[in-house]
Design brief:
heterodimer, A: D-Maltodextrin-Binding Protein, domain 2, B: MetI-like fold, 81% helix, 0% strand, globular
């Protein structure tokens, strides 16, 4: 009897843990090994990427395996936040192909000597997919959000990941800033707009994925994010609509072959495959805008009249030092001035 | 000793070295920036509050588990350790589901400073309970009975007999809980909102420095936490010893 009781308690405890894990399922990174047709010795590739394209690669890799170059190639895949992945590869995580959500994460590897300097010299400047910054709103858009100005009115709560922890969040902020310039405002007025915007941000999540989680838990009226994430969320049954504002930023996701790849030719042939119409169509089906012109299905994406890209601000190096330096950047200064007022208030 | 070095001392020393990468000036700048100071203040105050609450509540829980008998006691006893086993990010998620905007119990403290304390209470609960429990089990009940037979009230027995016996364990448990609380990260990330100057804890601030490619700044603030933890653990160790001597 006593032994039975002793066994029962840990068992129930284990059940309780499992129950809690079920509550939490669907968060965090993942990594998978697939040696689908590895028997024939067709080589192996390690793909290290940011989180969102995982859904696309579930279809892209089998499609690659059907091509002559990809026949029998096994894949080891790892998906997590872009900055973490980039730092992991810099620190020695073996990788053959890397795909990140923004260019500075590749630049870090160029500086570390792991990616060739000419990685962005192809026809597509090293980018494999595009997207735009959009407003995700509650189903039916109850607060009638349409323009950037609607985000800075008094009673709207805007969710936006922390730009100092989420590289991807920088896209949203530069979209907000650039949209002001597009509307003819001065840089000072655009900075002022950012300050107004952050007053309406009640939560600064660590990553875009956590922001989406916060939004689905019922917090906030608008979530700033990428069009492809909005589409993917809808495909997964999330109750939300999204609005493509008239002025917005073109998001470009870079891909590169790591120069320590065991089989650089194989790695390159996989990257080349991702630019084929078939692969680009798979990306489109997961919500990305294609980089290759004439890809089927590309016309479903609205073309905002005021679309600009990161070169509007002189490129990422300049953006990072001007806006996102943790001490002196514009955004850091906005946080500091608002922090002082919240502390005294 | 060499085991200690490999597992703990060398990595800790490396953090200190890293924090001085850019010289003493930038070390000072990193830890004295208003945002860093606000984050450190929040973490330290929240940790003190949480440790006080858990020192009292944890002792009560241990008391009930040792002295009372009720159906399902074995299960409750095992449940105490769950906050250790649960990945803290999951703890954060669970707390958010319970005390967030969609709370089934109607309590919404998410994204406020209260949420910082809630998360820390959860992850530090086991420390005091587990430190006090064995001492309570060993505690000689005859001492209490003797005191009672000599006419001491229950309060006097608790104050003069039980508390002095438990004090070293409570203090030791509280020290561990405090050290754990100031470094806690995972459970805070989701539920606090991480607003600088408002709900941004030191650990999150450190993380944001890492993500902004400022590892030296991150290490500098970590060193502050390490020093605080060291001082507190030494002080609590000394207190705990003093309490032991008092008992003899």
């Amino acid at each position: 009897m006593r032994t039975r009781k002793r066994l029962l308690a840990p068992l129930l405890a284990a059940v309780a843990v499992l129950a809690m894990l079920v509550v939490a399922s669907g968060c965090g990174g993942s990594s998978t090994d697939s040696a689908s047709a590895g028997e024939e010795g067709g080589g192996k590739l390690t793909l290290v990427a940011y989180s969102t394209p995982e859904e696309a690669y579930k279809e892209l890799i089998p499609a690659f395996n059907k091509t002559p170059e990809g026949n029998g190639v096994g894949f080891s895949q790892s998906y997590a936040a872009s900055g973490e992945q980039s730092r992991a590869v810099e620190g020695g995580l073996p990788a053959d192909v890397v795909e990140f959500s923004l260019e500075p994460d590749i630049t870090r590897l160029v500086d570390a000597g792991l990616v060739e300097k000419d990685w962005n010299q192809n026809e597509y400047k090293g980018m494999v997919t595009d997207s735009v910054v959009v407003f995700m709103v509650r189903k039916g858009n109850p607060k009638n959000i349409k323009t950037w100005d609607d985000l800075v009115t008094g009673d709207v709560e805007v969710l936006e990941p922390n730009p100092f922890t989420s590289g991807g969040a920088k896209w949203n902020i530069m979209a907000a800033y650039g949209a002001q310039l597009e509307q003819g405002k001065s840089p000072e007025e655009a900075t002022q707009y950012l300050a107004e915007l952050f007053k309406n941000v009640p939560v600064l999540d660590k990553s875009a994925r956590e922001s989406l989680q916060t939004f689905s838990s019922g917090k906030g009226d608008v979530l700033l994010g990428y069009e492809n994430e909005a589409i993917l969320a809808q495909q997964k049954g999330e109750e939300l609509d999204y609005i493509v504002p008239d002025q917005t930023l073109l998001i470009e996701n870079p891909i590169a072959v790591v120069n320590e790849a065991k089989d650089p030719n194989l790695a390159q042939s996989f990257v080349d495959f991702l630019y084929t119409p078939e692969a680009q169509e798979i990306f489109v089906s997961k919500g990305y805008r294609p980089v290759v012109e004439g890809t089927a299905g590309a016309d479903k994406f609205p073309k905002p009249p005021g679309l600009f890209d990161i070169t509007k601000f002189g490129g990422w190096d300049r953006v990072n030092s001007e806006f996102f330096d943790p001490e002196k950047g514009t955004v850091a200064e906005i946080f500091q001035s608002q922090g002082k007022s919240t502390e005294s208030g | 000793m060499s085991y200690l070095s490999i597992v703990a001392l060398i990595p800790l020393a490396a953090v200190v070295v890293k924090s001085l990468d850019n010289g003493a000036d930038s070390f000072w700048n990193a830890i004295s920036s208003p945002q860093a100071v606000a984050a450190l203040k929040l973490t330290l105050i929240a940790s003190v509050v949480v440790v006080v609450i858990n020192a009292i509540a944890g002792t009560l829980v241990a008391w009930v588990l040792v002295r009372d008998d009720f159906p399902g006691k074995g299960i409750v006893n095992s449940l105490i350790d769950l906050p250790f086993a649960l990945p803290t990010i999951v703890a954060g998620l669970t707390l958010l589901a319970f005390y967030g905007p969609d709370s089934p119990v109607g309590v919404n403290v998410a994204y406020t400073r209260v949420s910082v304390a809630m998360a820390l209470l959860f992850v530090t609960l086991p420390f005091v309970v587990r430190a006090v429990q064995p001492v309570l089990l060993e505690l000689d009940r005859e001492m209490e009975q003797a005191a009672e037979s000599l006419g001491a009230s229950r309060i006097t027995v608790f104050r003069r007999i039980i508390l002095p016996n438990l004090a070293p364990a409570i203090i030791a448990g509280a020290g561990l809980a405090f050290a754990r609380a100031i470094g806690e990260f995972g459970s805070l990330v989701l539920i606090t909102g991480n607003l600088p100057f408002k709900t941004e804890a030191a650990s999150y601030f450190i993380f944001s420095r890492v993500e902004s490619d400022d590892p030296a700044g991150a290490a500098a603030v970590s060193v502050v936490l390490l020093v605080v933890a060291l001082v507190v653990l030494l002080a609590f160790g000394w207190l705990s010893k003093k309490a032991l001597r008092h008992e003899e």
